Structures are given as structure tokens and as C-alpha cells.
Amino acid sequence: MNVYEAAIKRLNIIFDKFNYVYVSFSGGKDSGVLLELCAKVAEERGVRFGIFHMDYEAQYKMTSEYVERTLERFKNKADIYHVCVPFKVTTSTSMFQSYWRPYEASKQDLWVKKPPVYAMTEKDFPFFSDKLWDYDFQDEFGEWLAAKYKSVCCLIGIRTGESLNRWRAVHSDRNYRVWEGYSWTNTAKKCVAAYPIHDWAVEDVWTANAKNRWDYNRLYDLFFYAGVPLHKQRVASPFLGEGMEAIHLYQVIEPDTWGRLVGRVNGVNFAGLYGGTTAMGWQKITKPDHFTWEQYMYFLLDTLPEATRKNYLDKLATSVKFWKERGGCLDEDTISRLKEAGVKIEVGGTTNYKTTKKPVRMEYQEDYTGKNFKDIPTYKRMCVCIIKNDHLCKYMGFSLTKNELERREAIKEKYKDL
After folding, report:
1. In degrees, to the nearest 5, what angle opens at C-alpha 381 toward C-alphas 279 and 250?
2. H or E segment to which residue 79 belongs
3. 8 Å CB contact between 335 and 341
4. Cα distances (Å, whole numbers) of residue 266 to 113, 140, 257, 258, 261
5. What is the residue-wise DSSP string for 367-389?
6. Inter-residue contact 368 to 376 (CB < 8 Å)
7. How many CA atoms lie within 13 A of 122 on its CB side?
8. Around Cβ 238, how many Cβ atoms within 10 Å?
9. What does the pLDDT look like over 17-61, one tens digit per residue?
10. For site-directed labelling of 384, which of 69, 119, 126, 353 has its Cα 20 to 30 A away?
11. Rounded CA gap, 88 and 252, in Å?
């Protein structure tokens, strides 16, 4: 069985078991192929399905054109959820803004593009609030459909070859939130998530497009002509940290769109000039010789607006306390390297986390040159976060904040009786 046949088999399993199935369609190559596969299976079975597209407003014109012609092609076979709402979206282009909002009413004059006339807005979703981030919205959208159809599955086009985190999401032996034993699913919410093309390589995606003569986002042709390798071709929000290295391509591929982006979010032009360089925390960063990393961190913090500085200091205080009192989980190899380097550490025996690693308590270090740099609490790592405009401090391992956790618990309470 090849990966195409395996994906078809998985989709048939999903359609057998769920009352309603919908595809999360971004306009990228992976979700596009998954949509075509889902449409094929649904047509063979004579059933409707849903297509969910979160419109981020600030994107390549070619992506919007591909999305619009695809939704038009499937409008008689699928329920279309073209979402244009002002949820919060992370930005790494600015030290002043930690997020921006697509289709924010007060900034209509600055919109990169207008929403289509058939788009769904915040008025269509009773659960919407100004506090929602984009990833919150997509979770709550799934729960909203689950309340309506009872048994719902969301198809997501992630491939494990894209990153280690995606590989872990499917193959980790500690995965326990799986549906009926299938490792390519997740039951963290009432709406089950499934990854039918998780084992596809990027070459499989383009082979499927060619063999089946499927439509695709023509932006990828221009990426190819521009010399961007297949494995680095991404279609995503241009202001995310992951997109800083390639944001300059907008200037070459779609200069008109670039002109609108510059006026849409603070710091875009700087990111276009220096994204992917040490100026924005990429590659190997250095510090002035007369500073320690701790001193350099405070120097960088002093250049920031008050609210931004306080955010980073709060994250730092939380991290320092965590490593002193609870400790981070490290593997035996990293623990040995720390001991060899003369770092004073205290290794615990057990942890509440589901891991074979051991909890290690330690003070913040200046720098660490061994493997797993991102796992060790250092002031240099904090400097990287500041330079990257990583307001959430993902580089330091932070996830949900207290407010976000409280919001999640409120959602669980709201839907517990459904």
C-alpha cells in the first residue's frame, strides 16, 4: 500500500464513523491535497462535507485566488465556512505589537484585501470574543460544530516530515488521546482531529497533484523559480516568527501586496530587510564583549516599550522560579554534559510529566554550548527571544499563559453537558 492508498483508506474509516467531516483548508499545498482526497471519497460515498478556511487577510494574492476558485468549485458539494473574523494573531515583526487582528473594523482603510461577500464574520459565531487567538478560534469552531452534529471529525493536512513536533504528535509512544487506537488522530476536544496524510513526503504531494491534474496554489511555481527548496516552501501568515526568513519574497513576487503589508503591521519593512539574519535572532547571535549575557539581556529590555519589557520580565521570573523549584525535564546525555561543564544541578528521581527524562533544578546560566541549547535556562536564550520579537517566548518553551488556561477551563465548563 502506498501513501495515497493509505490516505484513502483512512478517510473511508473517518466517513464510516462520524456524522460530519470537514477539512481545515489554508490554501497551502498539504491542505489542498487533503481537500482533493476528501472530496474524492465524499463523492464516491454520495455525502457532503465541510471546508473550513480561516482568512488571514494579509497573504499572497495568489493564495486568495486559489482559495476562492477552490471554494467556488466545491460549493455545490460541500458546506463552505470562509471565516473572516478579527481574532488575535501573533506577530514577530514588531517590539511594540505582540499581535494583530485580520479584518479589524477600526483599520478597514489598511486592509490588505476585502473579505468576499459570502464570508462568515464574528456575528455568525456565538462563541466569538475579542480575547480569542486564531488557534483558539479554530478549536472553538470545531466544538461549535460538535455541539450541532454530535460526532464530528476535522481533517488537518499536517505531515510528520515537516518538523519533529509534528512527528511526535503522531508517533510518540506517550500519545494517549487517540481515537479508537489510531495514532493519526487526536481526541483532546469533542471534535476529533485526524491527520490522514501524516506519512506523505513533500514529493508525494506534488506527485499526487500531477497524476490527478488537481488545481493548486500557483504561488509554489514562483517559489520554485525563486530558488526556494521544496521543503522550505510555506504559505502562512507573513508575520509569524517562522516566516521571517522568507518575508522578503513578498517584495519580489507581489510588490503591490508588499506595499500594503508595510502599512498593515508595525515593523514589516525591517523584517523584510533583516528577517533570517542575526538582527532578528537567526543564525548565531553575538553580544558586545563588555557585556555578560545577563547584562546584555537587561540592555535589550531597556530599549523596549514598558508593556513589552514587563511581558518579558514576567516570563523570565516565571522561568527562573520554575527551574529553581520544580526543574525542567532533561535526558541523561544532557545531564552528563552539564555535570562535565561544572554546572551545579540537582537531579530528581521522578516527575509528574509523562516522560522518561529526569527533573533537573538549577540556576539560570549565562550560556550553554552543548546540544539541546533550547532546553537549558540561559540568559542568552532570553536574548534570542527578545531579538526575535518572540513575545510568547516559545523559544524558551512557554505555552499557554494563566489567562489562556483559565479561558480553556471556562470553555470546558461551558460545554461539559453537551
Report:
1. 35
2. strand 78-83
3. no
4. 18, 29, 15, 13, 9
5. ---SS-GGGS-BHHHHHHHHHTT
6. yes
7. 15
8. 28
9. 999 999 999 999 999 999 999 999 999 999 999 999 999 887 778
10. 353
11. 28
* CA 96 to mean position of chain CA atoms: 21
What distance in Å separates the CA atoms of residue 361 and residue 323, rounded to the nearest whole number?
5
**Local structure of residue 59 (DSSP, 8 states):** S
For residue 77, which phi and psi values (nearest 5 degrees)?
A: -115, -15
Domains of the chain are: 3-212 (3.40.50.620), 233-279 (no CATH), 293-405 (no CATH)
Report how far residue 317's alpha carbon sits from residue 393's, in angstroms, rounded to the nearest whole number: 12
- What is the chain's length? 418
- Which residues on adjacent β-strands are paired with residue 63? none
pLDDT, tens digit, 9 for 90 and up, residues 134-165: 889 999 999 999 999 999 999 999 898 877 77
Handedness of CA 330, 336, 342, 344 (dihedral sign): positive
CB 102 within 8 A of CB 86: yes
Choose among 312, 286, 285, 300: nearest CA to 394: 312
pLDDT computed for residue 341 by the predictor: 83
**How distant is the alpha carbon of residue 18 from its chain centre?**
26
Q: How confident is the model at residue 281 (pLDDT cuts 50, 70, 90)?
A: very low
Residue type, 124: D
In whole angstroms, give the CA distance from residue 371 to residue 365: 15
Q: How far is CA 283 from the centre of its chain?
A: 21
The span from the CA of 74 to the CA of 45, in Å, is: 16
Please choose, from the candidates 133, 176, 158, 409, the residue with its C-alpha nearest in 3D space to the C-alpha of residue 141: 133
The single-letter code of the amino acid at 70 is T
Grid cell 523584510 is found at 272
Asked if residues 55 and 237 have their Cβ atoms less than 8 Å apart, the reply is no
Question: 170, 198 in Cβ contact below 8 A?
Answer: yes
pLDDT at 189 over 50: yes
The span from the CA of 6 to the CA of 38, in Å, is: 13
Predicted confidence at residue 8, as pLDDT, reads: 97
Torsion sign across C-alpha atoms 42, 44, 45, 48: positive
CA distances in angstroms from 76 to 50, 175, 328, listed in the order given: 11, 38, 52
- CB-side neighbour CA atoms (13 Å) of 344: 3
Look at residues 365, 374, 381, 391 and name the one whose alpha carbon lies nearest to residue 281: 381
Give the per-residue pLDDT at 80.
97
